[in-house]
């Protein structure tokens, strides 16, 4: 069965950095685009970033461009989200999600999420 | 950006009742590229519906999706205890940023 396991969430001060990981299993990781989605307290889901299966194509939402970097290591079946210059409004549960298939950017499997809290 | 508005924000119902959740888009969602997810505290969100009306693998037939253009509906025909959760819609037509609605919480009355 497909499993996605996020880790790396923590309490960090404004301006700080954090790296999230998402370990994948149960499918051919390199064949699928992967996406990061977050859920801030009291708000809806928010698309953050996406990366193609081979890592060639990467997209970010405007509010994280220049601060967040997503990449993947297909030899380790792991997705990463490097976050820097963190702000209070980045506080959220961060989910990694598997794209259904190429060209169809909805998500058939999600991890349980990892909490990032940005506060002094 | 195609803004999705879900209503109501909260739906208070009893087990066995029918739930009707709305998702309205600010622009036409081409090719009915709309998905619905269920989210419970501490659990991974679960894909319910894609293509506006296609049930994902393993989803019970009490869940159904309908609609087209800018107006979409998720219906739960008879609520089971495990169905009380938050439901999100998402459009996946446009290139990023893809957008989600604000969610509808279905709570026990």
Describe, in plain words, how this protein is organized in 3D.
The complex is a heterodimer of chains A (120) and B (109). Chain A has strands at residues 3-7, 11-12, 18-25, 34-39, 45-51, 58-60, 68-73, 78-83, 92-101, 104-110, 114-118. Chain A is an all-beta fold. In chain A, strands 2, 4, 5, 6, 9, 10 and 11 form a 7-stranded mixed beta sheet that branches. In chain A, a hairpin with a 4-residue loop joins strand 7 and strand 8. In chain A, 40% of the residues are buried. Chain B has 109 residues and is mainly β. Chain B is globular, with a radius of gyration of 13 Å. The relative contact order of chain B is 0.33. The chains are: A mainly beta (120), B mainly beta (109). At the A-B interface, strand 5, strand 9 and strand 10 of A face strand 4, strand 5 and strand 10 of B.
What's the SSE pattern of chain A?
Answer: EEEEEEEEEEE
Biggest β-sheet description of chain B: 7 strands, mixed
* Major interchain interface with per-chain residue totals: A-B, 26 and 26 residues
Distance between the termini of chain B: 35 Å
Report the total helices of chain B: 0
Unreliably modeled segments of chain B? none
């Amino acid at each position: 069965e497909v499993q996605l396991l996020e880790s790396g969430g923590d309490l960090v001060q404004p301006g700080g950095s954090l790296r999230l990981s998402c370990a994948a299993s149960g499918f051919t990781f390199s064949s699928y685009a992967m996406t990061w989605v977050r859920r801030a307290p009291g708000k809806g889901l928010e698309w953050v970033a996406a990366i193609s299966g081979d890592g060639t194509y990467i997209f970010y939402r405007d509010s994280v461009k220049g601060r967040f970097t997503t990449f993947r290591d297909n030899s380790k079946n792991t997705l990463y989200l490097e976050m820097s210059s963190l702000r209070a409004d980045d506080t959220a549960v961060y989910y990694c999600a598997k794209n259904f298939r190429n060209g169809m950017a909805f998500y058939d499997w999600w991890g349980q999420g990892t909490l990032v809290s940005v506060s002094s | 950006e195609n803004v999705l508005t879900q209503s109501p924000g909260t739906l208070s119902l009893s087990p066995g009742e029918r739930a009707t959740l709305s998702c309205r888009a600010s622009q036409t969602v081409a090719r009915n590229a709309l998905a619905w997810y269920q989210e419970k505290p501490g659990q991974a969100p679960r894909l319910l519906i894609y293509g506006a009306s296609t049930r994902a693998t393993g989803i019970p037939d009490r869940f159904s999706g309908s609609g087209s253009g800018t107006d979409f509906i998720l219906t739960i025909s008879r609520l089971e205890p495990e169905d009380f959760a938050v439901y999100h819609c998402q459009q996946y037509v446009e290139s990023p940023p893809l957008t989600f609605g604000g969610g509808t919480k279905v709570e026990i009355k």
